Amino acid sequence: MRVYLPSTLPSLARAAAEGELGPAPLTGYAVTPALIEWYASGDTEELEYVALTEAARASLRMLAADRADGVVAAARRVVVAAEVPDDVLSMGADLEERARVRLAEAVPMAKVAAVHIDDTYAADDIEAAIAALPAADRGDDDARFTVDGAEAHELMWYATQEIPDLLA
């Protein structure tokens, strides 16, 4: 199953050095039965885009958590697309978890199909979204608008052989 794993540039660098995304358990996003049921009229491509978008939201939260821990990284959301065996996945059935999956094992870099990442021109909007997350979580509509603005930026697609260039 294609799984979209939220990441950051430092996490991607660590995975590239270690040869795997981990440690397990990992949270990812995929086209699950609950997502298919929720988005009944969508084709596979649309459903994969929904899963990718959910992973990008999680990446934004990872960036915010890193900042809270004093880790300053480029304000670029990163999503790693990987092919994962179904037997290492568990899926939630709740509507709020419709695309979320949990992986019981680390993902070898050999299973990575592509990396999706913000272009550098999105940095200002991503920085603003990171700063607005706490207020958005408290229900501030203006902050939610700012966070949603990050999604106006499409993530760019990179082949696995381009990962070293992304990290340089």
* Helical run tally: 6
Anisotropy-based shape? globular
Question: What separation lies between the terminal Cα atoms?
Answer: 30 Å
Helix content: 40-55%
- Extended strand count: 9
Strand order of the largest sheet: 5-6-3-1-4-8-9
- SSE string, helix = H, strand = E? EHEEHHEEEEEHHEH
How many strands, what sense, and barrel or not for the largest sheet? 7 strands, antiparallel
Radius of gyration computed on alpha carbons: 15 Å
Runs in which pLDDT lies below 50 for 5 or more consecutive residues are: none
Assign the structural class, choosing from mainly alpha, mainly beta, alpha/beta, alpha+beta, or little secondary structure.
alpha+beta
How much beta, percentage-wise? 15-25%
Average pLDDT confidence is: 91
3D structure, described in words:
The protein is of the alpha+beta class and 168 residues long. Helices cover 42% and strands 22% of the residues. It is built from six helices and nine strands; from the N terminus they run E-H-E-E-H-H-E-E-E-E-E-H-H-E-H. The protein has a seven-stranded antiparallel β-sheet. A two-stranded antiparallel sheet has the order 2-7. Strand 5 (89-91) and strand 6 form a beta hairpin. Helix 3 (44-68) crosses helix 4 (123-137) and helix 4 packs antiparallel against helix 5. The protein starts with a strand and ends with a helix.
